[in-house]
Amino acid sequence: MQRQIARRLAAAGIAEGMLEARLLIAEAVGCDALDLITGRAGVIDDAAARRLAELLARRLSREPIAYLRGEREFWSLPFMVTPDTLIPRADSETLVAAALAERTAAMAGRPLRVLDLGTGSGCLLLALLSEWPAAAGIGVDISEAALRVARANARRLGLDGRAAFVCSDWDSALADTRFDVIVSNPPYISEGEMLTLAPEVVNYEPRVALTAGMDGLAGYRRVLPAIGQRLAAGGWAVIEITATRLAGAIGLAASAGWDDVAVKHDLCGQPRCLLLAR
Ligand SMILES: C[S@@+](CC[C@H](N)C(=O)[O-])C[C@H]1O[C@@H](n2cnc3c(N)ncnc32)[C@H](O)[C@@H]1O
């Protein structure tokens, strides 16, 4: 059955057919994908077969597998995802690693205040809080629907006592507070690039999480000055970029008063985030 499903997925232009076939079957049966390999999976009864047919039809119409499963792993933590939230990308773990690496011995043990601008599922903020047990933070998003998912993720991960979520156009609704660490993965796809995206992205992920105006820089025009105003002395900020936005974002950072900007790369060697320190 796995091979048959993999062939149908491949015919629809979906790569990694065998892996996805296994994930779909596991989701339908209600077991772990590993159970299918080790032969410990349950039987595919009529209900599971119906569920598999429905999941396969949705996947063949290019709905992302993370939305079918309702979950995506990020920083080895399980995050609930819905079509109201961007699906966390493995590349964005570069931001978490960069933020963690920046904590100096002087800051160790200090209860860090963290701000995540454009929190979506809450993945960046919650990954950092999971690593810094004394820290607390705020996740901001313009989408109330995304924030409901972020709050549910905080509860599920046992971090809701240290995470608050605020609906706001970037930092505009926040009180006059400063933060030790600011992270942000703003939308940065240009209108032109939207036409080139895979159907999984352009047809299913929230547009507000993807695109930021004609040049893809509108988010940075708001986030970089906000960081300038809200970063505490001794603090640091990490902002996701992509190679195509690198020069534009560095230029905007310079206009916002950030002359010393470090660029961090992801595991593929691509520029993935800017690091600003005060
Ligand atoms: C690229 S997604 C990042 C989501 C999540 N931080 C992640 O890394 O997976 C950008 C997020 O910014 C939010 N956003 C877009 N415009 C915004 C605005 N004006 N104010 C606050 N959040 C905004 C979107 O709703 C979306 O959740």
Ordered list of secondary-structure elements with their pairings:
Blueprint: H1 2-11, H2 17-29, H3 33-38, H4 46-60, H5 65-69, E1 71-74, E2 77-80, H6 93-101, E3 113-117, H7 123-131, E4 136-141, H8 144-156, E5 163-167, E6 179-184, H9 191-194, H10 199-202, H11 207-210, H12 218-230, E7 231-240, H13 246-255, E8 261-265, E9 271-277
Parallel strand pairs: 3-4, 3-6, 4-5, 6-7
Antiparallel strand pairs: 1-2, 7-9, 8-9
Bound molecules: S-adenosylmethionine.
Whole-number mean pLDDT: 93
Could you tell me how far the N terminus lies from the C terminus, measured between alpha carbons in angstroms? 57 Å
Task: Characterize the biggest β-sheet.
Answer: 7 strands, mixed
CATH class of the largest domain: Alpha Beta
Task: Kindly name the structural category.
Answer: alpha/beta
- Percent helix among the residues? 40-55%
Strand content: 15-25%
Please work out how many helical segments DSSP would assign: 13
Tags for this model:
13 helices, seven-stranded mixed β-sheet, binds S-adenosylmethionine, two-stranded antiparallel ribbon, 278 residues, alpha/beta, Rossmann fold
Characterization of the model:
- With 278 residues, the chain is α/β, with parallel strands linked by helices.
- It has 2 domains: 60 residues, no CATH class; 207 residues, Rossmann fold, CATH 3.40.50.
- Helix content is 41%, strand content 19%.
- The strands form 2 sheets. Strands 5-4-3-6-7-9-8 form a 7-stranded mixed beta sheet, with helices on both faces. A two-stranded antiparallel sheet has the order 1-2.
- Strand 1 and strand 2 form a beta hairpin.
- Helix 1 packs across helix 2, helix 2 crosses helix 4 and helix 6 runs parallel beside helix 7.
- The chain is globular and about 60 Å long.
- The termini are far apart.
- The mean pLDDT is 93.
- The protein binds S-adenosylmethionine.
